[in-house]
Specification:
Length: 148
């Protein structure tokens, strides 16, 4: 059995870098497209992840009106808030709406960080395109193992 996550993240790194170099738009962080590509068949998880990322983006934007947030401090706060909101969604989502969770621990925070840096639409469009390309390449590379 092939480990899918390292392959997916590796392909995501290459495709994301190429996309950034060709079009100048990042796809939500270096490891994000690989994780998202593995979860494209789980729409509730994708929706939860994007909801957490947008909520994180909004909270940090509001906090930045009261606090001095830039550089590492802003990055760390985005990832921390995304982590905590993602954990809450994953923990309590089963109680309300069934079994779904945010993808990964830092993925929503990284998406939110890039939304803040380059814009929400640009980040989501780039993330979608790169993740679909990564998924297609995964299907070519591992074939039927991806369905498991």
């Amino acid at each position: 059995m092939t480990e899918l996550l390292p392959i997916s993240v590796g392909i995501g790194l290459v495709i994301g870098l190429l996309f950034t170099e060709l079009f100048g738009i990042a796809s939500g962080g270096l490891i994000v497209p690989g994780y998202v590509a593995l979860n494209l068949t789980k729409p509730l998880d994708l929706a939860a992840t994007l909801m957490v990322a947008l909520l994180t983006f909004g909270i940090v934007r509001v906090l930045s009106t009261f606090l001095i947030l830039y550089g590492r401090r802003r990055t760390a706060l985005m990832i921390l808030i995304g982590y905590f909101i993602g954990m809450m969604v994953s923990r309590w989502a089963g109680v309300w709406a069934g079994d779904f969770q945010a993808i990964g621990f830092i993925i929503p925070g990284l998406i939110a960080l890039w939304m803040e840096r380059q814009g929400v639409i640009e980040t989501l469009a780039s993330l979608t395109i790169v993740s679909v390309i990564v998924r297609l390449l995964l299907i070519l590379v591992v074939g039927t193992e991806l369905a498991r």
